[in-house]
Design brief:
four-stranded mixed sheet; mainly beta
Length: 131
């Protein structure tokens, strides 16, 4: 019986890396697609005074075209106005390398933002609007 409960919990994932996450009420979601031509193992998003990191539970590399989603709630900060967002790439050894360019983000409730990571190596990685 316990095994069945655990399997049910695992199957009810809030999102799949094959598709971006939709926002819930009073929430901003930043969806970032991996279109990079180099391996990485996670992303850290820094927005205002909040930092979130997304990695796979088994620390596998992020697959090409996978979506990583970051949720920001109105309880975190006021979802109104504009802020600069920083992104750092997490490498296999656990080190992070920031992407040099910060992105202006319009903070709004009930909104999804779609971005992508591109580049041929970590040193020239870019973050830009997902096309």
């Amino acid at each position: 019986m316990l095994l069945m409960i655990l399997l049910s919990a695992c199957m009810d994932r809030p999102y799949s890396p094959s598709k971006p996450m939709e926002p819930k009420e009073n929430m901003l979601v930043i969806n970032i697609k991996n279109n990079a031509n180099f391996d990485f193992y996670g992303l850290r998003v820094d927005l205002l005074n909040h930092s979130q990191t997304t990695v796979y539970a088994n620390f596998e590399k992020i697959q090409k075209e996978d979506w990583l989603s970051f949720e920001f709630h109105e309880d975190d900060f006021v979802l109104d106005g504009e802020a600069q967002m920083g992104v750092a790439i997490q490498l296999e050894n656990g080190d992070t390398t920031p992407i040099n360019k910060k992105i202006p983000v319009q903070l709004e409730k009930n909104k999804s933002i779609f971005l992508q990571i591109t580049g041929d190596e970590v040193e020239n990685a870019r973050i830009e609007a997902e096309m």
